[in-house]
Amino acid sequence: xxxxxxxxxxxxxxxxxxxxxxxxxxxxxxxxEFDQLLEAWMYGHxxxxxxxxxxxxxxxxxxxxxxxxxxxxxxQSLVIPVSDIVxxxxxxxxxxxxxxxxxxLDVPFHYxxxxxxxxxxxxxxxTQRRKANALAAMVAFVKEHTQLFPNRLLFVTCTNGVVYNFxxxxxxxxxxxxxxxxxxxxxxxxxxDESNWLRFTVAPHRIDLxxxxxxxxxxxxxxxxxxxxxxxREFLRRCRNLRSLDMVTLGPxxxxxxxxxxQDLDRLDRNVVPDTTTxxxxxxxDNNNLTQHQENQRQEVRGLVPIRSVTISEHIxxxxxxxNDIAIGFSLTLEYLSIEASxxxxxxxxLERVIHVGTGWVNLPVLTNLSLNFTxxxxxxxxxIWAHCPSLVLLVIADPTTRYRCQDIVPCLPGHxxxxxxxxxxxxxxxxxxxxxxxxxxxxxxxxIYTGSCTDSHFFxxxxxxxxxxxxxxxxxxxxxxxxxxxxxGDPSIQTGLGGASDVIPRPKWTxxxxxxxxxxxMFTAEFAYRFQFRMLQRCPRLEFLHLDMTSMDGPDAHTRxxxxxxxxxxxxxxxxxxxxxxxxxxxxxxxxxxxxxISILELKGQWTIDDSxxxxxxxxMFPRLQYFNEKTFGGISLLGLLNVMREFAPDEGCGIEAKxxxxxxxxxxxxxxxxxxxxxxxxxxxxxxxxxYPLWYHREQERLNTRVYxxxxxxxxxxxxxxxxxxxxxxxxxxxxxPIH
Length: 742
Fold this sequence. Notes:
Elements: H1 3-10, H2 19-23, H3 26-32, H4 39-45, H5 47-68, E1 77-81, H6 85-89, E2 100-104, H7 121-148, E3 155-159, H8 173-182, E4 191-192, H9 197-202, E5 214-216, H10 223-230, E6 244-248, H11 256-268, H12 278-282, H13 292-300, E7 309-313, H14 322-329, E8 336-341, H15 348-351, E9 354-357, E10 369-374, E11 378-381, E12 394-398, E13 422-426, H16 428-432, E14 446-450, H17 464-471, E15 495-496, E16 502-503, E17 521-525, H18 526-530, E18 545-549, E19 560-563, H19 565-568, E20 569-571, H20 574-577, H21 581-586, E21 591-593, E22 601-605, E23 607-610, H22 615-622, E24 628-631, H23 639-649, E25 673-677, H24 685-691, E26 693-695, H25 702-706, E27 710-718, E28 731-737
Parallel strand pairs: 1-2, 2-3, 4-5, 5-6, 6-7, 7-8, 8-10, 9-11, 10-12, 12-13, 13-14, 14-17, 17-18, 18-22, 19-23, 22-24, 24-25, 25-27
Antiparallel strand pairs: 15-16, 20-21, 26-28, 27-28
Region (Disordered): 475-502
C-alpha cells in the first residue's frame, strides 16, 4: 500500500488532488502542530523541508491506528505513539488481550544544545507542560489497563526516538520506575532483558530466578536500575540455569561467589572435578566436540552455574577482579568470553590504568572465543595464560599500548592452539606474544600482529640497535651462522649493550618460517612490519591479503628497509645459508624463488626501498596474481620504476585474460589499481608528459588520449595534490599510457 492510498484512508485526503496539495493545506498544518516546532529550525531548513520531516511521524501515527483500530480486541502487542495516546486511552476497554506496550516518544521535549538560545521562557514552559502531560498519560494508561485487566499487561518499554530533526527524546527514569511498580511481578522468568528488566529491578528479591537462562542488561543503563542492581549484585548467583550473560560490570566482587563455589567443589569432592590435566585437554576433539567421558564429567558438576557465554563491559565502574573471577568460576563450561574496557570518564590515573588478566586461571577446556578490547587501559597478561586455553578458535586482544621499552616486555609462554582460526593481537599482547605458538596453528586463516591503532598514520618503533639487542640479532635481516640452520634470531637471553655491558632482554624469537596452509589475511605494523621476512610467504600458499606498515614516528630515515635479491629468494641448501648477504645476492642458483601465488592485495607503507631493476622481480615474480598495490610513501620505490613495471606486464585496456593451466599465471595479469600517497603537482603538464600519466579529468589531453592505447590499470594519487577543487577527498584517478607521449 503506497503513501497516497494510505493517506486517503487515514485523513480527509479525498478532497485533494495529491499528497503535495494535501501537505500544503490547513489540515496538514494542524496535524503538524507548528507550536511544537522552533522557528529557528524552520528557518534553517525551510518550510518545505519541515513539511516533509513532519510527514513521517504523522504517517506512522495514522497508519498504526488504521491497522490496529479494527482488531484492538485481538492485539497482544502494540506500539502507541505518545502524540496519539489520548485516542488509545479512549478505547482501553477493548484491549483485553494486550500483554506488551511500547510507547514511541514522537513529540519533541528536548531540542538540542544548539537551539538553547532560541528557547524563550514561554516556549520552555509550554514544552515542560506538554512533556509532563504526555508522561502522565503514559502512566495513566498503564494504571487504567492494570485495573481493568489485572495481571494481563506484562511488558512496557519506551522508544527513545528521533523527532523530526531534533535530539533523541528519552523517557525519564522516574517515569519508567513508576510504570514498573504498576506491573505484576515476574513469575519464574526464562530470561531477563530490556523487555522485563523494569519488573525485575523493582523487586529483585521476590522473584524466582532459578529458570533464567539468559541475562541481557539494557543498552543505556539508567541510574536507578543500575544502582538497584549494584546493591543486589549476587542476583546472578540465584540464576542457577544461566547460560548466557551480557551486561555492564557491577563492580568488584560481582563474580566472587562463582570462584567460591568452584573452590568449594574442589575441596568437598575431588573425584567430581573434571580431569583438567594435559592429557584430558588433549582429548578434546576437533570443532570443540567433547568426548563422552568429558560430557559425563560436565553433567556431574551440574551444581555449578553452567554459563557458556559472557559479554561484559564497563559502565561507570572500572574493572577490578571480574575478568579473572569469570574465567575461574565458570572454567568448566565457558565457551565465549568478551570483555570491553572502555570507560570514558574519570581521572587520568583511571584511564591510564593497567588491568591484569590471567592471574589464577585454571584450564578452560571448552573456551573457543576470547575477545579482550581495552581502549582506555593497558593490559598485562599472565605468562601462562595460553596454556589454559587449548581449544581457542578466535583470539582477539587489543589495548592502546604504543610506546614501550624492549627491556620492560615480559613475554608470555607459547601455547598449543590447533583449532585457532583468527588471531588478532594489538598493543601489549602483540609485544608479549611468543611466535612459537604459530607452529601449532595449522587452521589459522586471519593474522594481525600490531601496535598502535589501525587508523594511525605513524607508529612507534624502537631504535634499530635496541631491536637488535632485544631479539639477539647480529644483523637486523641476517642471522648469525650458529642460528641459520633453524632460522632463529640468536640467543636473546644475554646480549652486549652499546656500552659493552650485558643486557638481559628475553624477547621470543621470530623465525618467519611457520606452516600456515590456510592463512588468507596477514597484517603487521610497527616493528613487526619492519622486521618482516618474505620467506614467511613460502609456507602460506593461500594468502590473499598482505599489509605491512612500518611508517615511523621518528621519520623515514630512522627505519628503512632495503629490499635486495636475498629477500626474494629462500635458501634451500646449507652452503647457501652459510654465505654472507653479499655473496648470497649474487649466487641464487641453489635458492628457491619466493612466490605468493594467491596474494591479490599488497600494501607496503613506510620507507621500503628497492632498486628499479629488482621491482619487476619483486612485484611480477613474487606476486603473480596481484590486483591492488598500495605504496604509501614512495620514498624508496620510484614512481617511474613502478610505471615501467605496469607497462611491461599489464595488458592493454580491453585485453582478455587467457585461461592458464594450474600453476601458470601471467605476471600482473589482473592488476587493477596502484595507489600512491605522495605530493604531486598536476599543473606541471610537462612532467606528466614525461611520466606518461594523465588524470582522468584532464580534458585538454583527452583528444590525444583517445588516439593512443593506454593501460587498463588505474593509478590513484592520494595526499597533497594541487588544484584540489577538482579532486574529491584528495584522491585522483589517472591512466597510464603504454608509452609517454613525448
